Amino acid sequence: MSKEDIYILGVESSCDDTAAAILKNDEVLSNCIANQEIHKKYGGVVPELASRAHLSNIIPVVNQALADAKVKPEMLSAIAFTKGPGLIGSLLVGTEFSKALGLSLNIPVIEVNHMQAHILVHYIKSDKKKPDFPFLGVTVSGGHTQFVIVEDYLRMKIIGETLDDAIGEAFDKCGKIIGLDYPAGPEIDKLAKEGNANKFDFPIPKVEGFNISYSGTKTAFMNFINNSIQKDADFIQNNKNDICASIQKNLIENLISKIEYASKIKSINRIVIGGGVSANSFLKDSLELKSKDNNWEVFIPPLSYTTDNAAMIGIAGYLKYISGLFSNYNTIASPRLAFK
Ligand code: KG4
Ligand code: ZN
Predict the structure, then answer these.
(1) What is the residue with the minimal CA distance to atom 22 of ligand 1?
(2) With a 6 A CB cut-off, is 85 part of the ligand 1 pocket?
(3) Is residue 19 in contact with ligand 1, taking CB distance under 6 Å?
(4) Of the ligands numbered here, which is closest to the C-alpha atom of 312?
(5) pLDDT in tens, 206-252
(6) Nearest to 33 by CA among 8, 62, 9
(7) Which of 168, 171, 163, 158 is nearest to 262 (CA)?
(8) Whole-prediction pTM value?
(9) Which SS3 state, helix, strand or coil, does residue 267 take?
(10) Distance from the CA of 275 to the center of ligand 2, in angstroms?
């Protein structure tokens, strides 16, 4: 351990995953996560149950991250935690836990914006090239769909976002309509691989400028499924793969056309994706194809850093640490935290 090395504990608890990671500078030493299975049977995250599960998971997960990294609490330089956006009860657990641990160890705490962290995850040490600035950041998760101009690690400006549902939410809600478990995104991705994406057509809501919309597609999808079931009770069962491939194509093409528009208007050819939906294989394939047509340089995070994780909170914390951006101990969780 060199004297200059910075050890960060990252803590993430914004939704239904309790996660902790240890970073030595920009290198991830451990990355632990406790998923909350309880929400599956309700078809979505139940905030009250999520907060309770965070309370019982947080100490074991942090202990596991320290043990995996072979780092003792006294070695930590700072604790980075998700201040928001997210569910208030969930955020409170990680925020207050981090402040209490920071106080007891007498080390600084660093608040992190969850959506910025989804973008900054690309700066974790690896063999891969890191995105140069500026770039168009695209965050695609269960709670957000944002188009962000990123000038520097912490200089980000949202130029557009969803007017209603997030893309991950649209995946999850459409999946629920055809009886898939929450979160349905990964299952739709899997089932779509065996399906015909051109079998069924759904509308793409028209939205001016850099904003995007998904709720009209979801409603059209619901009506289509209900009508089809009336004609054939086994419609879903007999067409599951084609339904998944078709709705997936629609949701992703809507996103890609907005990326193309934003890239053209802003004259930015570097596209950096972050958030749970960046795990989607059709999105990755489509971006690869489009990058050839548009001369884009596309960055997609490794699979383990796509959905919520604490390594991304740790790297954001490290980048803030080296800029001296620490938080007061009286900082509080903020469910609608905006970019600064
Ligand atoms: O970033 P994330 O873990 O949590 C939020 O911050 O919301 O994103 C979760 C979202 C869920 O909606 C989930 O269905 C979606 O990411 N997701 C996917 C895939 N893997 C996760 N959506 C489509 N295809 C996937 N392979
Ligand atoms: Zn997220």
Answers:
(1) 185
(2) no
(3) no
(4) 2
(5) 999 999 999 999 999 999 999 999 999 999 999 999 999 999 999 99
(6) 62
(7) 158
(8) 0.95
(9) coil
(10) 5
